[in-house]
Amino acid sequence: MSTASNTATGTTTSTTTNAALKGKVAFIHGGSRGIGAATARRLARDGAAVAIGYASSAIAAEALAEEIIATGGKAIAIKADATDAAALTRAIDGVAERFGRLDILVNSAGVLAVAPLDQFTLEDFDRTVAVNVRSVFVASQAAAKHMGDGGRIINIGSTNGQRMPFAGGAVYAMSKSALIGLVKGMARDLGPRGITVNNVAPGPVDTDMNPENTEFGASLHDLMALRRHGKADEIAAMVAYLAGPEAAFVTGADLLIDGGFAA
Ligand code: NDP
């Protein structure tokens, strides 16, 4: 693939298509916005048929599917609320049935609640665990049934699984460090079948969850070697690498892509 890039801003523009994922089918949970949407676009550009899972952003998910189809790709939008295990499993089974196979699962659905320990509600604790951890387990269990040799499970973890340098983020950090343990164990379970399981662990990325242009966003730059937010496309590029054939020997890993946040 040939690309033009600006290293100062992290902007990357693809000029040709890499069909490394031609014939593959991917389900992107939380594909309607942010990192998941960038991943859906990228995997589609690399040749995969993509199913865009969403909970509430139906319009954005449908629009993204139409955009991908308009550029010659294959895409569908499918409702799959992370907090409903049966519905999530049904959605994944439906994707495998519709496309005849499932090769790649990307777990990008996530929520961030920040509050001091004495004000953090049990409701937010339970929601964080349900979306950020439990749904990753449920989706992986459902997807693995359909995967063969070369299958890929890729979670969007966080650099906060390794470093939490501000107050109020304890539960979010816990949810992302839980994924580090989960991928290590699942990599052992699925390795004999030729399926790899990894986390991509971003630092601050400019999305609805963590906009760069805010006081909080700017304060994060002081903690980083590269004093800027990442772009969703930069994270999608690492997901695309893990999804592709060149990453066949990478499994059980928590791969930082954080502008030196944890350095
Ligand atoms: P956004 O807020 O931009 O997007 C969140 C995505 O998750 C949406 O597609 C949303 O779908 C989906 N989602 C939320 N709740 C549910 C649910 N109950 N069921 C299904 N889908 C759900 O966030 P980002 O793109 O920034 O975050 C993506 C992942 O990356 C998350 O796991 C996050 O923790 C992680 N991350 C983000 C960083 C950042 O700085 N932005 C840094 C490190 C990690 P819908 O709108 O349809 O509800």
* Low-confidence residue ranges: 1-16
CATH class: Alpha Beta
Query: How is the CATH topology named?
Result: Rossmann fold
Assign an overall shape: globular
Number of H- or I-type helical stretches? 7
Total individual domains:
1
Q: In terms of structural class, how would the helical and strand content be classed? A: alpha/beta
Spell out the blueprint of helices and strands.
Layout: E1 3-6, E2 11-14, E3 25-29, H1 34-45, E4 49-54, H2 58-70, E5 75-79, H3 85-99, E6 104-107, H4 122-144, E7 152-156, H5 170-190, E8 196-202, H6 215-221, H7 232-243, E9 254-257
Parallel strand pairs: 3-4, 3-6, 4-5, 6-7, 7-8, 8-9
Antiparallel strand pairs: 1-2
Q: Could you describe the 3D structure shown?
A:
The protein is an alpha/beta fold. It has a single domain (12-257), classed as Rossmann fold (3-Layer(aba) Sandwich), CATH 3.40.50. The chain is 39% helix and 17% strand. It has 7 helices and 9 strands; from the N terminus they run E-E-E-H-E-H-E-H-E-H-E-H-E-H-H-E. The chain has helices spanning 34-45, 58-70, 85-99, 122-144, 170-190, 215-221, 232-243, and strands spanning 3-6, 11-14, 25-29, 49-54, 75-79, 104-107, 152-156, 196-202, 254-257. A 7-stranded parallel β-sheet has the order 5-4-3-6-7-8-9, sandwiched between helices. It has a two-stranded antiparallel sheet with strand order 1-2. Helix 5 links the parallel strand 7 and strand 8. It starts with a strand and ends in a 6-residue tail after the last strand. The model is unreliable at 1-16 (pLDDT under 50). NADPH dihydro-nicotinamide-adenine-dinucleotide phosphate binds at residues 30, 32-36, 54-57, 81-83, 108-112, 131, 156, 158, 202, 204-205, 207-210.
